[in-house]
Design goal:
The protein is mainly alpha-helical and 165 residues long. It has six helices and no strands. The longest helix is centred in the first third of the chain and has 26 residues.
């Protein structure tokens, strides 16, 4: 289902995808090749398909004039998380053309991500788990939270928490 940290990370990833694709398009028009053609094709076709699926699932509910609930956004959040993973892969694999099966043969070593990307992935996972554990009592209705503890889980002023003491 996700949590605020995951949603915000995926929102940033979707924004980064848009900025990256615009920058690649502008630089390509100036005959400046910043990424390999295979990488560009994967970003445009594979990740672009995922982002298009996110838009097609998100836009109809965004345009509605009625009250929206979490279950309206959940189908599109799956595609947002998939786009986040695709962008993380794009950023963390240095030899992306080899990963894209361009010159694949039997004695190619496994792709090992850099140490920075492993640490970055560890931080993202730790933030997701910590946020899940923080919101789990509220999400699953665990008893024992005081009124102050419930209010502390209201990170944004737009969060409406309805509870009975």
């Amino acid at each position: 289902m996700g949590n605020p940290v995951g949603w915000w990370i995926s929102d940033v990833a979707l924004l980064m995808y848009g900025v990256t694709m615009v920058m690649i398009a502008l630089l390509t028009r100036r005959n400046v090749e910043v990424v390999d053609g295979i990488v560009q094709r994967h970003m445009l076709r594979s990740t672009g398909f995922i982002v298009a699926a996110w838009v097609l699932h998100y836009a109809p509910f965004f345009l509605m004039g009625r009250s929206l609930f979490l279950h309206h956004y959940l189908p599109s959040s799956i595609f947002a998380y998939m786009a986040t993973a695709a962008l993380f892969q794009f950023a963390s694999i240095m030899d992306y053309p080899r990963f894209a099966l361009k010159h694949w043969h039997s004695n190619v070593r496994a792709l090992v991500p850099s140490g920075v990307s492993v640490v970055g992935f560890g931080i993202l996972v730790a933030a997701q788990v910590a946020c899940f554990l923080y919101f789990a009592p509220l999400t699953y209705g665990t008893t024992g939270l005081s009124v102050d503890e419930i209010h502390s889980r209201r990170w944004l002023s737009t969060y409406d928490l309805h509870f009975q003491t």
